[in-house]
Design a protein that fits this description.
Two copies of one chain form a homodimer. Chain A is mostly helical. Chain A contains eleven helices and no strands. The N and C termini of chain A lie far apart (73 Å). Chains A and B meet through helix 6, helix 7, helix 8, helix 10 and helix 11 of A and helix 6, helix 7, helix 8, helix 10 and helix 11 of B. The structure holds a DNA duplex (19 and 19 nucleotides).
Chain lengths: 227, 227
DNA sequence: ACCTGAACACCGTTCAAGT
DNA sequence: ACCTGAACACCGTTCAAGT
C-alpha cells in the first residue's frame, strides 16, 4: 500500500497546530521537521512552503500557546478597580499557569524567543490594564512587570529543586554525606520530611510554592501602590 | 605544515575550561564537539576519552561557572546575624550576578540541567546559612528559595523586555499601530521615554530592575521573618 | 593509556523538478 | 500553487584501529 496524498492541504495554521501536538506528546526534542511532516502525512521539505524555517515554527508555536492563554484569561471576570487589582492579577496569572501546565515544554521555548509575539504583547497589555485599574502609574507597572518576570505569565524557573525526585531515591549513606558537606540543605530537607512525613515529596516546586512567591511579590507591589 | 600533536595532554578539566572559553567567545551554539576539539588542537573523537557525552560537558560547565561564583562570593564579608541577613543575602546575590554577566550564555544552560551540581548545592547551602543566621526556620528558608527562584543565583528571565532593542527602531507608524492595539504597552513606553528622553533605552531589564525585584522579595521575606 | 579515521544516524535546509 | 527526491553541510556518537 502506498501513502496517500494528504486530504487536507497543508497551511501555516495546520503546521503550527501539529507542532504543538507533537511537542505535547513527545516533548520539544521530538519536534523535528521530519517528525512534524510525518504527523501531517507529508514530507519535511513540504513544510518550507508554509513556514520560513524552524525558528519560524517556534515563533508561531509560542504565539499559539499565548493565544490559548488569552482565550482562557479572557473568560475571567471580577472587579479590578483600586485594591481589587491584586485579586484580579492573581486570578489571571494562575489561569495562565494552568494553560502552561498542559504544555510543560512551552516555558523553555518561550524563553528562547527574543521577539515578542502579538499574543504575548496582548497578554501583557491586558495585565498592565489591570494594574492601571488599581491605580499604578506606568512607571510603577513597568517595575512590577520586571519584578514578576516569568511569573507574570504563570511559571517560574528554579535552578535547583530541593526535593525534586522521590525522597526514597536518597539512601541513608548519601544523606549522611550530604549532611556533612551541606548541613543547611540537609537540615532543610529533614525539616520538610519531618513536617510532612506522609508526603511523597518530589512535589514542592508546585502550586503552593508558586503561589507563595507570587503573593510575596503582589503584596510588595500593593505596598508600592498604596505609597 | 602538518598539525602537531597537542603539547599538553587532554583532561576533563582542560576540556571543560575550553568549553567555557568557546561559549564565552561564540555563544552556546558555538559549543560543538568539533569546534571544542579544534580549540584544544585535537579531534572531536578524542574528547570522548575524557567525557562521557556532550551532556556531561554541559554538566561540568555549569559546575565550573558555579565554582567561579562560589570563589567570588567566598570573599565577601560582613555581618549576617539578625536583621543583617538581608544585606548579606543581597550582597551575595549581586556578586553572583556579576559572575553570570561575564558568561551571558550560562543562565540558559543552568536552566536545562536537571541534576544539581555540587558547586550549585554549595552555593545554596551557604545562602541558606545566611538566612538561618537571620533567624529563618528551615521551612521559611525553603519558601524563600522558591520565591527567589533563579534570582537566588543572580539572574531573572523575562519573557518580554518592554524596551529591548533600540527605541529608534520603532518608527511613528508602528508606534501608532501599537497604540491602537496595545494602549497600555504604548502608554508605558511613552512614559518611560518621557521620564528619560535622553536614554538610549534598550536598557531596562538591567541592574536597576533586577535590584527592584530582588529588594521587593527580600523585603517581603524580612516581613515573614519578623513574623 | 590516550588519540584518531572512517562511518552512522540524524539534523535543518536548498534546489531543481515534478504535478 | 503546492509538494517532493535527491543532495548538502553539519550535528553527536560508535568502534575498530593506531601509537
Amino acid at each position: 500500500m502506498k501513502a496517500q496524498a494528504p486530504r487536507v492541504p497543508l497551511s501555516r495554521e495546520r503546521v503550527l497546530r501539529a507542532a504543538v501536538r507533537v511537542a505535547d506528546e513527545g516533548g520539544i526534542e521530538a519536534l523535528t521537521m521530519r517528525r512534524l511532516a510525518d504527523e501531517l502525512g507529508a514530507e519535511a521539505m513540504s513544510l518550507y512552503y508554509h513556514v520560513a524555517k524552524k525558528d519560524d515554527i517556534l515563533d508561531g508555536v509560542v504565539d499559539l500557546i499565548a493565544s490559548e492563554i488569552n482565550e482562557t484569561v479572557g473568560q475571567l471576570a471580577g472587579p479590578s478597580a483600586g485594591a481589587a487589582w491584586k485579586a484580579a492579577v492573581r486570578r489571571r496569572i494562575l489561569a495562565a499557569r494552568e494553560v502552561l501546565l498542559r504544555h510543560p515544554w512551552a516555558p523553555a521555548v518561550f524563553e528562547t524567543r527574543a521577539a515578542a509575539s502579538p499574543a504575548i504583547l496582548r497578554y501583557y497589555d491586558e495585565l498592565l490594564g489591570l494594574m492601571r485599574d488599581g491605580g499604578f502609574s506606568y512607571d510603577q507597572a513597568h517595575h512590577a512587570l520586571h519584578a514578576l518576570g516569568s511569573r507574570a505569565i504563570g511559571f517560574s524557573q528554579e535552578l535547583f529543586t530541593p526535593t525534586s525526585g522521590a525522597a526514597g531515591d536518597v539512601d541513608q549513606a548519601t544523606m549522611d554525606m550530604m549532611a556533612a558537606q551541606f548541613p543547611h540543605l540537609a537540615g532543610m530537607l529533614a525539616d520538610i520530611v519531618h513536617d510532612d512525613p506522609a508526603s511523597t515529596l518530589g512535589w514542592c516546586d508546585d502550586q503552593e510554592e508558586f503561589e507563595f512567591g507570587l503573593d510575596l511579590i503582589l503584596d510588595g507591589l500593593e505596598r508600592v501602590r498604596a505609597g
